[in-house]
Input
Amino acid sequence: MNLHALRLFTKVAELKSVSKAAQALMISQPAVTIQIRNLEKEVGLTLLESKGRGITLTQNGEFLFMQAQRLFDLEMDIENKLEQLKNMGIEELQIASTHVPSHFLLPKWLATYKQANPATNIHLKTANSQQVIEELLHYKADMAFIVKEDGHHPDVDYKFLMNLDYWFIVPDGHAFADQQVTLAELMQEPFVSREDGSSTKEFLNALCKIHKTPPPRVGLQLDGINESIHAIAAGYGAMLAPSIAASGFMELKQIARVYVKGMDIQRPIYLCTRKNEHNTPSTFNNFIDFINKAIS
Output
C-alpha cells in the first residue's frame, strides 16, 4: 500500500475536506485528489463520497481511517522510543488508567518503582474506560489499567489483577443511611452519575437492566470519582462508589453506606496491553513484573 497516499487520505478524513487537507499539507488540491483516487484503485474500495460542498467517509473509508491512525501513531511511538535509546538509554513508560486505579493504587506502585528505577520517566494519564483503551490502541500508552466487567476489545489482552468492593453511598443522616433497601427503592433517589464512557455508569445501568429496575434519575453528572463522592458528602443524592475511595469519607461520618438486598458488588481491575505485541522494551517488562509482585 502506498503509505504517502494513505497519509494524505488520513489528513483528508481527519479534516473532512480535500481543500483543507491540501492547505494543511502545503500541496495542491488536485495532487491530493489524484493520490486519493489512486489509493481507492489500489485497495479496490470507495473511501470518500461527496456531501454538499465537502466529503464524507464511506463505511470502508471509516475502517481504513481508524487503522491508518493506529499505523501512524505506531510510527510516532517507534520514533519516540528510538530517541529514548539515543538519549543515553533513558526510557519512558506511558500509562493510561481509569480513575480508581489512577487515584488509589498506581501512585504507591509508581513511587516505589521509580525509587528503584530512577532513570525511567513515567507518565500517567487518567481518563474513562473508553478513552483509556483508545490511548492504548493508538500507541499513546504502553499499558492501561481499567475497571470493567465485559465489552473487552478484541485487540487488547486483559490480565486480571484483583477485585474491588463497590458500595452504594448516601450523605450521612440520609433516611437510607446504614439501612437495607431494595434496588428499586434506591433508584428513586437522585444519583450522582459519572460521564458517558465511564464503566461505573455502564455497570449501574446494566445492573438495573438485569434486575428489571428503571435506571436512576441523574441529578448531577461529574467526570471524576473524588468530585462525585465530595458531592455526596456535601449532602446530595446517592451513587455507586469503590470502597477504597469512599471509606475515608465514611470514617469522617460524611457519607454512609446503603445495603441493597441480595447484592454484594465486586468489580475487577485489569492490566491491559496490546494483543500479539512482542519484543517490548525492558522497562515495560520490568514494570509488569513489579506489578505482579506488588499484588501477589
